[in-house]
Write a structure and sequence with these properties.
heterodimer, A: about 290 residues, alpha+beta, Uridine Diphospho-n-acetylenolpyruvylglucosamine Reductase, domain 3, five-stranded antiparallel β-sheet, four-stranded antiparallel β-sheet, B: alpha+beta, Aldehyde Oxidoreductase, domain 4, 3 domains, eight-stranded mixed β-sheet, six-stranded mixed β-sheet, 33 strands
């Protein structure tokens, strides 16, 4: 179906265009790798597609305590950024697994979180790292934790007229991302799991482990039972095994074409173990606490 | 791609033996090099490679005709239903719609095999699978076609849905086709018995039976189906189509449209892969032509990937049971087979498939007792058809697994067990196949020596393993599909004109496999000229003589022989002309290095173009023709012609795997692929076929499968139908050890389909070596591996199978022949 493709050059212009017409008749597009396909499959039929490509949202900035990634930075750019690789290994590892190199040159982090796919490889590490989004419209700006922003596949808290400006991620954060798929590229993960060791919060002395699984249910899931099995900064083999076991028990799974529930549980157990071990190994190599 | 090659330029003379063994690959290369061909056997990039990699090659979809309309086909939403009515009036009146056709316009049934015409251009009164075409629309653009679909009102009356071939075997209330056997939905049933299988099995000291289960698989070719048709005011119809069988398409168009063949022109542009998926004349090709006739304008029908999956014609979902009995020394006594294959809604090549599942099963082994019962069932699945190593792939996996299991149970090394049981060269099998050249022994010994088999088999750590399997395939079906009128299976025409170039006309369909390059190589070799003098003309039925098509691995063998004959015929007037110029009798002359010269004194000669121009003085452009037909082969019993071929390819593959016992993931690390295609005319292309076959075989083995819920196909997309990526390719070493075939062109045999069959069981047997479980339910996805490992743990622990204890002697690389 025909549509109008618009390239605003300022945020003000973009906000105005996104407000035009009935809700749903204007849609923002970052890389377009999901949106254009969805339009081809007749999931959406917007009258206006507002490209964010010419807005100043395409930079990665490293602050003292956080990284700010503009919503239209191509995944490939972030993936190849040595600072990201060093500071946010879980994200870097997940980025290298999205689609294919060609796709990653086009796709963006902002687009990926708004797509909010159940099988996204990026949501688990971002949620595990307490990523927050900056959302703006003509009415103003707001900041929202990613975990709250995502409601389900193609469903988020983004309101008509709003766009995602950037993602803010506390940095550095040691961690790892583990996944399995039938094919290493051009495929969707059967299970993906991010393990991140957050620094101690709220006066606590113990680090705060985060274990977040994707590809298994309509929404990414934080596995708190699994996290709570990790009692120390350097968990023992028994603790790791227990965390893996609990993860497999508590995660909510679906059976679909890509894998059966039963298999996903077994897989998750193996991947959580490997993710924790790899995080610890990185910490040791980096001389971490 | 991770494929590598071990090939080195062969030097004539005695090959250098390695420290302990003769290197069979080097020896074969040296033998071949001694023949002294200037082009044959040289690694030759395909002559259309530059056009293809720069995007300049013209595929059907690249063709644009003035005023061309878009044709689309409305798919049935029921797997089995009567069509009570179709109302297309509203769609016809919709602006931009040029024509809407339904099945009643051209109801003549057709099909690739003359005895099983059960397809129609569009559904006539009934749909038999979800996705069958019920109406055809030609309009100004795709959106208008889609809008017209919404305005077509089809009233369906659902019928019982058959999605299980086991049910199709029993008496059924509704037959899918009237021609189904008895009161069942069986399309074809085959019984064959040679020797006395029950008696031989009774006397066997070991009997092994395995049952294999195989999902259907898709060819996964790159280019979706595409057809353009144009009916011009001179009363002629031109059809451009992505097809492997231009001649069968030509016949079907004529039959269904009621138009004589001479008024129809079929053109095959470049084809982006077929693998059997373009080897039937298809309903959409005929519907496209019908739309062109109806509108008087050119019409293009281009499939999307979903359309391709619904048209299917892929490998049959299969269940097969194979029992083999052996004596105490490991000699194979008898093979007993039962196969049930799901043909889907149409016959397609089904009669052939049903035979092939049995007659090709003995493969490279000698059996004196053989029994086969095979049945192909109609179901309401999209039709199955021919796919690379048609009828020889699923059966091969079960058979080679059985052989591996016999070796394990009787404590033989599986290579030694096979060596005792191979067919010799020049032999007539129990089912009367004439075996001529056969280098399967060299294949298995080369694969053994190159893979380091003896240091690895049963000796790698748990989780890693090595396995072996053999292969066998026809090098061209001996029997043509059509028996009337009688004409050669392939004809080649040559024309040499003033410009000293040679134009080659042949109907053989290059679908990416490189047959055009073989044509140029063969003609240039015979005429002693550079290959760039040879131009291979497009396949166009107006100018190219008939070739039966690219199927059954027949092209190199049959087209190669026809091209060789044509070039020999073209050489006669050239030698005659040179003879006049040189005043030397023609029988003392030969053509080489762009010259025609005295055999024993090469300095005395004339350039090719001078001889040509002399010959043309009175005759004009030189034209010559060459043809090839197979000799009669096979027995006189029912079905005796099935599987007969003028030659057979043989192979032995060794694969090495790494299985993760935690995730069940199978990583294939290496494949040593020893293949006997006789003399490889173009080793580069043969290696391409082997590497591509391994990629395709591993896909079927590990991840590909058409998944149905009832009769609904669940994964008609390349995201959910998992073709492996190049990242998963193992390291491939191609070992070309064949000897010259006595009847093949320059000694060549096929290398298109045979390279596939051993890949799957070699890996399956390697998985058994790695973790001790035998997986017979394809694809072997990681969850199945984990489940099998759990079963194994319940039975007493995950361990590698024990090492063989006999025989003590190891067959030397040369010996026992």
């Amino acid at each position: 179906m025909p549509f109008e493709l618009l390239f605003p050059r300022s945020l003000e212009e973009a906000w105005t265009l996104l407000e035009q017409g009935a809700p749903g008749s204007s849609m923002a597009m970052a890389g377009g790798t999901d949106l254009l396909l969805a339009m081809d499959f007749r999931r959406f039929a917007p009258e206006r597609v507002v490209s964010l490509a010419r807005l100043p949202l395409d930079t990665v900035e490293f602050g003292e305590k956080e990284v700010r990634i503009g919503s239209t930075v191509p995944l490939r750019t972030i993936e190849l950024d040595p600072r990201v690789r060093k500071a946010l290994p879980a994200l870097s590892e997940a980025l290298a697994e999205v689609g294919s190199v060609q796709l990653r040159h086009r796709a963006t982090l902002g687009g990926n979180v708004v797509r909010a796919s159940a099988s996204s490889d990026l949501l688990p590490p971002l949620v595990a790292m307490d990523c927050r989004l900056t959302i703006s419209s003509r009415k103003g700006r707001r900041s929202l934790p990613l975990d709250e922003f995502v409601e389900g596949s193609w469903r988020t808290k983004l309101q008509p007229g709003e766009l995602v400006e950037d993602l803010r991620i506390p940095s550095p954060l040691p961690g790892a991302y583990r996944w399995q798929r039938v094919r290493p590229a051009n495929d969707i993960s059967q299970v993906g799991v991010a393990v991140v060791r957050q620094p101690p919060h709220d006066g606590s002395s113990a680090p705060d482990w985060r274990i977040v699984a994707g590809g298994t249910s309509p929404r990414v899931q934080r596995l708190r039972g699994s996290e709570s099995a990790l009692l120390s900064p350097w968990p023992s083999e028994e603790e790791i095994a227990e965390a893996a076991k609990r993860a497999a028990q508590e995660a909510r799974f679906a059976t679909d074409l890509r894998a059966a529930e039963e298999y996903r549980r077994k897989l998750l157990e193996a991947l959580v173990r490997s993710g924790i071990e790899s995080t610890l190994e990185r910490l040791r190599e980096g001389g971490g606490r | 791609m991770a494929g590598t090659s071990s090939r080195k330029s062969g030097s004539a003379g005695t090959p250098t033996p390695s420290s302990t063994e003769t290197d069979l690959v080097k020896e074969a290369e040296a033998t071949r090099a001694s023949a002294g061909y200037h082009l044959i056997g040289k690694r030759t990039p395909l002559i259309d490679a530059a056009l293809k990699v720069t995007g300049r090659a013209e595929y059907t979809d690249d063709i644009k005709r003035p005023g061309m309309l878009v044709g689309r086909l409305l798919k049935s939403v029921h797997p089995h239903a009567r069509i009570r009515s179709i109302d297309v009036e509203e769609a016809r009146r919709h602006p931009g719609v040029a024509a809407v056709l339904t099945g009643d316009r051209y109801p003549t049934p057709f099909g690739v095999l003359p005895m099983t015409h059960d397809e129609t251009a569009l559904a006539v009164g009934r749909v038999r699978f979800l996705g069958e075409h019920v109406a055809a629309v030609a309009a100004v653009d795709e959106e208008t076609c889609e809008r017209a679909f919404e305005l077509i009102h089809v009233e369906y009356e659902p019928l019982p849905v058959y999605d299980d071939p086991k049910v199709s075997r029993e008496p059924v209330p509704v037959k899918i086709h009237d021609r189904a056997l008895r009161d069942t939905n069986l399309q074809k049933e085959v019984f064959q018995h040679f020797g006395d299988v029950p008696k031989a099995l009774e006397g066997a000291s070991q009997k092994v039976k395995l049952s294999g289960k195989y999902l259907g698989v898709s060819h996964g070719f790159t280019e979706p189906h595409c057809t353009i048709a144009e009916h011009t005011p001179d009363g002629r119809l031109t059809v451009w189509s992505a097809t492997q069988v231009p001649h069968y398409l030509h016949r079907s168009l004529s039959e269904v449209l009621g138009m004589p063949m001479h008024r129809i022109r079929v053109v095959k542009p470049e084809v982006g892969g077929g693998f059997g998926g373009k080897s039937d004349p298809f309903p959409h090709e005929i519907a496209c032509a019908a739309l062109a006739i109806e509108t008087g304008r050119p019409v293009k029908v281009l499939f999307d990937r979903e359309d391709v999956f619904y048209l299917n014609h892929g490998r049959h979902p299969t269940q097969n049971d194979v029992t083999v009995g052996v004596d105490a020394d490991g000699k194979f006594l008898a093979m007993d087979i039962d196969a049930l294959i799901d043909g889907g809604a149409w016959s397609s090549f089904g009669v052939v498939t049903t035979y092939y599942n049995g007659v090709l099963a003995m493969g490279p082994y000698r059996f004196d007792n053989f029994r086969y019962h095979g049945a192909r069932a109609y179901t309401n699945h999209p039709p199955s058809g021919a796919m690379r190593a048609h009828g020889g792939t699923n059966m091969r996996y079960t058979v080679e697994s059985v052989v591996d299991e016999i070796a394990a149970r009787m404590s033989f090394d599986p290579i030694e067990l096979r060596l005792q049981n191979f067919l010799p060269p020049n032999f007539k099998t129990i089912n009367e196949f004439r075996i001529t050249s056969n280098s399967v022994r060299q294949c298995i010994l080369a694969a053994r020596d190159r893979s380091g088999w003896e240091e690895k088999y049963r000796k790698l750590p748990y989780g890693r393993g090595i396995g072996v399997a053999c292969g066998f395939y026809i090098s061209g079906s001996n029997s043509p599909i059509h028996f009337t009128p009688v004409f050669p299976q392939c004809t080649v025409h040559l024309k040499a004109d003033m410009d000293a170039g040679v134009t080659i006309h042949c109907g053989a369909a290059d679908i990416g496999q490189g047959s055009k390059t073989v044509l140029a190589q063969v003609v240039a070799e015979v005429l002693g000229i550079r290959m760039d003098r040879c131009r291979v003309a497009a396949v166009d039925s107006d100018t190219a003589p008939v070739d039966l098509g690219s199927y059954s691995s027949r092209v190199t063998f049959m087209m190669g022989n026809a091209a060789k004959a044509a070039a020999e015929n073209l050489k006669v007037p050239l030698l005659q002309a040179a003879s006049e110029l040189l005043e030397v009798p023609p029988d003392r002359l030969e053509a080489s290095e762009e010259r025609i010269h005295v055999k024993e004194r090469p300095s005395q000669g004339v350039p090719f173009h001078e001889a040509l121009h002399k010959a043309m003085e009175t005759k004009g452009a030189l034209v010559a023709s060459g043809a090839y037909s197979t000799k009669p082969l096979g027995g006189t019993f029912k079905g005796a012609k099935a599987g007969t071929a003028p030659a057979y390819s043989f192979s032995a593959y060794v694969a090495q795997v790494d299985v993760d016992p935690e995730t069940g993931f199978v990583h294939v690390e290496n494949v040593w692929a020893a293949f006997d295609c006789g003399r490889p005319l173009n080793p580069l292309a043969v290696e391409g076929q082997i590497e591509g076959s391994i990629h395709m075989g591993l896909g079927q083995l590990l991840s590909e499968g058409l998944s149905y819920r009832g009769a609904r196909l669940m994964n008609p997309s390349l995201l959910d139908y998992k073709i492996l990526t190049p990242m998963q390719m193992p390291k491939v070493e191609c070992l070309l050890v064949g000897e010259d075939d006595p009847e093949g062109p320059f000694g060549a045999k096929e290398a298109g389909e045979g390279p596939l069959v051993a890949a799957l069981p070699a890996v399956g047997n390697a998985i058994y070596d790695a973790i001790g479980v035998r997986l017979m339910d394809l694809p072997i996805t990681p969850d199945k591996v984990l489940r099998a490992l759990e079963e194994q743990r319940k039975k007493g622990g995950a361990v590698k199978p024990p090492a063989p204890t006999r025989p003590s002697k190891r067959t030397p690389t040369h010996g026992g022949r």
